[in-house]
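Run: sequence + 4'-deoxy-4'-aminopyridoxal-5'-phosphate -> complex structure.
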Amino acid sequence: MAWDMDNMDDLQLAAREHLWMHFTRMGNYSKEGGEIPMIVRGEGAWLIDSHGDRKLDCLSTLFCVNIGHGRHEMAEAAAEQMKELEFCTLWSYAHPRAVQLASQLAQLAPGDINRAFFTSGGAEAVESAIKLARAYHYARGDGKRIKIIARELAYHGTTMGALSLTGLPGLKVPFEPSMPGACHVPNTNLYRMPPGMREEGYAQAIEDRILFEGPDSVAAVILEPVQNAGGCFLPPDGYFDRVREICDQYGVLLISDETICAWGRLGEIFGCQRLGYQPDIITTAKGITSSYIPMGVMLASEKLYEPFREAMLPHGFTFGGHPVASAVALKNLQIIEEEGLLENARRREPEMKHALESLRDIPLVGDVRGLGLFWAIELVSDQESKAGFTPEQQEWLLRGFLSEELYKRGIICRADDRGDPVIQLAPPLVFTPEDIGFMKSVLRSTLEDAWQELQKRR
Ligand code: PMP
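>> structure
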């Protein structure tokens, strides 16, 4: 069928016929009145949809657009690079932009993390970290170390290795068998700490798992600074110090998955800098270019590079370190620095906290937690007992009401129930106090209405 691609009704029909959206129940849009939200433009912290309606992007479009939308300098940096050298691989050749970016990342990264292995996104960065961890031990004659410990509910990507580390059974079951050697320990869900558990128990669980598996079989532990899936799980005091000690004691590497937590999300370039720990590997993507173009990177310490100083690491991707992506990442870093966006994130942090905490009088709000510009509201049916919802209530609340209503009333955020139900908020670093005020008013009216409606449905 011939579509008129300038006509929004035709675009809707064509999307239903031909587009396969990620992590999306396409069936929702085939029903009467089911319209796919279509975003056509962006400016600062705002997105404009196909009806011309402005929506406040309180999620940086999936934790991505840290410097905000519509920055022409980014488009110019890409255009300049395309005119000079549109493409070159990093297989056997180098090119100036990748070298400049690698050097800048080495300066920004903590400790002796000095090597940048570029990828096209987060999952490829995690995949590279899995392979480097195994190859590092193998090169040192320690090839039995193949296991990697991750945390329950954590999301590390959808390629087979990264998926195996992902602690969400619902995402894995159809694709089994997983990569051998992926193990999981509890995440730091302090709001729902099991009876008898103490905060120290979370790091202890990692040591227990290393001992259970056999220390000489464990290659690495992978953790996010603040875990996204489940809703901004913060580490308890001393957690990362203890994890670092445990890793050192058993010769296990520590991978910090900062696909989300880097590039100012927690108020510093890297999340581990905000939380004060030194990983052996950092994996990141998304905000490295503010997602004006896809890019990821695995950053590794000198220690990990050492076995490969003379030998080749047999691993790579055609598009790793793409010149246009590298030029855009350099411009992104320049904007973050020149516009003081890390400082802005730190200034907004207490204001975000205060705004979200003020919603606690709404019976639906069970917990509010986060750091920097990375926050979650956990929803409950009873604040006192922290009780959740029946499956029907939860389906209605998240997919039948909140997702649509929050969008209709003007904000983009994420209602997620991969763990207990949460609303996730991660605005661009250019967020203003007025933006926080608007976000809060929409959250308040929508959550109050959701609670009223839920009472009628009981
Ligand atoms: N790790 C973490 C912590 C993530 O949040 C994500 C994506 N949300 C990934 C890995 C995978 O990144 P990508 O979708 O770019 O492959």
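>> summary
The two ends are 47 Å apart (CA to CA). The pocket of 4'-deoxy-4'-aminopyridoxal-5'-phosphate is lined by residues 121-123, 126, 155-157, 224, 228, 257, 259-260, 285 (CB under 6 Å).
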